[in-house]
Model the fold of this input.
Amino acid sequence: MNPGTDTCDERIAIIGAGVIGCALAWALTRAGRQVVLIDRAEPATAGASFGNAGHIACEQREPLPSPALLRTFWRELTVFGGAVDLPVRRWAVLAPWLAQFVRAAFQQKRNTPALAALVTPARDALAAALREIAHPELLVCNGHYALWRGPAACARAARAARAAHALGVQTHPPPQELLERVRATSAGADVQGLHFPDSGHVIDPQQLAAALARAACAAGATFQRAEVRELMPRGACIEVRTSGSVLQVAAAVVCAGVQSEPLLARFGVHAPLTAERGYHLEMPHTAPLTDAPVLHADHNIIVTPMQGRLRATSYLEFEQHDAPPDARKIARLRQRLQALGYGGTTAHPGWVGSRPTLPDYLPGLGRAPGEARLFYAVGHQHLGLTLALPSAHLLTALVCGQPPPLDPRPFDLGRFGSLRSARQ
Ligand SMILES: Cc1cc2nc3c(=O)[nH]c(=O)nc-3n(C[C@H](O)[C@H](O)[C@H](O)COP(=O)(O)OP(=O)(O)OC[C@H]3O[C@@H](n4cnc5c(N)ncnc54)[C@H](O)[C@@H]3O)c2cc1C
Done:
């Protein structure tokens, strides 16, 4: 460390120890780089990486914005009983992001191959990393199930199977025994479903990120608990100003989730991230329907078997990152789970966290323009757990100047324009 001088050490600073930063710390250390991982909290305890649904969603190959969604999203709004909350008082603030979302809907066809290239190998990449760090037990490769109830169940399941097939995603009918068990709690309603065999789930998302961080530290990385206040270009070095020190490092990677934008702005990088908040409730000691996540598709609730408990996640709430949780959503999730036949949610207080989401639902992976070696891995939206390893391998290649495993250009944040002209 050389505070106040123009020399910098060889280290690469990673800002943010969510699952993206932890996976990258592991991959860069494995590639022989010196790494300092910095977060204001212990790994994966403060952000989305703590509380996600644990689903390794290799089937989600299409970015969310689509022309069909523009026509039908209103049915999913919370005022109509759905899972999407776009509070009226936030419309003005969200207008530029929503305008880009609408534009991205008409680019879905172009963007799908880029996302598919990252998502498709994700389960295998995670399995390989977990074997290497001697924690294969954290990943279960039983796929997942989607279920629909009511008179339209059959048609909806068939439509979902056709859509999956068109993307090259395998589906099978679920076992009759599973459908019978669900019918028993559905007051005689028809129940149909699909099994997606190529997805997976993690039995504890926080433990997974922490295991990657520990493996990085065992191989020489250091973890520093501090708030990063500012990143500054210093010639080819980066100055990292934290609450406790000033470091000058050879390169820095911003992985600060939904709070990444201000750290990137000084380098001219425009990252129009929004907080797309989701909630979870946990049901300790409740037996799962099956040893795989179950998506109750009519309610947008996914229930994942985790170590010692089930975790139920839901909602897409376009709220400020640090706003208090909405108690009505937690209460409604609790009620719905009881109606779906899950009994054990009462003691859990509920958790809320922010998916870091860019308007086109592609992550931002790349390097800032200019001399400084400032990189970013942000905007992993609903898929950060899934994409942690593919993104880490891509970023490692970019940082080390090696050929990337896939074309990085669709993920460059230059697609949202630069802030340089605005600041000059
Ligand atoms: C309810 C819910 C369910 C989800 N389900 C799934 C799922 O099933 N599968 C899936 O693949 N993805 C899922 N996701 C998405 C996934 O959790 C996120 O995409 C992923 O966790 C993002 O990881 P991250 O490391 O970018 O951000 P985060 O996990 O938010 O981590 C960012 C870190 O940066 C730190 N930080 C920020 N600013 C600073 C600063 N200035 N100084 C120091 N530290 C800083 C924070 O403390 C935090 O630890 C879900 C998300 C939610 C909310």
